[in-house]
Design goal:
Structural class: alpha+beta
Strand order of the largest sheet: 2-4-3
Number of domains: 1
Length: 221
């Protein structure tokens, strides 16, 4: 990827249907690891082939995961169909899988996420919930803008997170400076909602002229 780009990306075909399947409970650890690994691969993958060749040590450094959690997370990501893995000695090639009905890609703030991803919590359902919300926000982001207006109802529909767990998960993202949250009110119906400013893209245009779309609409990729 050209050095001038401050963002990476991932295919978003899977998020709508498969993200809710990364459930908590006994599977929280491996599913959290799967999403961390997916984002780590996206940060290093070639933007044309969606493939990255990294060692476990490099992947551990990018994700902040231990080797046992890497193994569990890779297995979970493969089983979900969002990641393909090819091994060659001590090197491993990872590919973000595509789909016939490809729906484009979602941008990642490359430099910011490289710093933050290893520092995100590595245990518990709140860590998993935070990653799911972050991926959902990146996916529904309006084109060329980095402010995402969305109601809790729609956020729950995208992630299948229990309503009482939304706030703690958002706190994780705000505390790690991945998002900034403001309260707003849709002009057409006066319905209050949150607006999530995705941080780290360094876009003065987006910051100066955010696109406010109706938060009561179902946002689709």
């Amino acid at each position: 990827m050209p050095a001038t780009l401050n963002w990476a990306s991932f295919p978003r075909w899977w998020v709508r249907d498969r993200l809710p399947g990364f459930t908590a409970g006994v599977s929280a650890g491996k599913n959290m690891a799967a999403l961390k690994i997916y984002l780590a691969v996206a940060l290093t993958a070639d933007y044309r082939t969606r493939r990255a060749e990294v060692s476990w040590s490099e992947l551990s450094e990018l994700s902040g995961l231990s080797r046992p959690m890497l193994k569990r997370g890779i297995d979970s990501a493969q089983q979900s169909g969002i990641l393909e893995v090819t091994s060659n000695g001590y090197r491993h090639s990872y590919c973000l899988t595509s789909a016939a009905d490809q729906l484009g890609f979602a941008k990642l703030p490359k430099n910011r996420l490289r710093l933050v991803l290893p520092k995100l919590p590595g245990r518990g359902y709140i860590a998993l919930d935070a990653l799911k919300i972050y991926i959902a926000l990146l996916t529904v982001r309006p084109r060329d803008r980095f402010v995402v207006p969305i109601t809790h109802k729609n956020l729950i529909n995208w992630t299948a997170i229990q309503p009482t767990r939304i706030r703690p998960a958002i706190d994780v993202l705000t505390n790690h400076r991945l998002i900034h949250v403001t309260k707003a009110e849709a002009v057409d119906v006066g319905h209050p909602h949150n607006e999530y400013n995705l941080l780290g893209f360094n876009s003065t245009t987006a910051a100066a002229n955010p696109l406010h779309i109706a938060a009561t609409e179902e946002i689709t990729p």
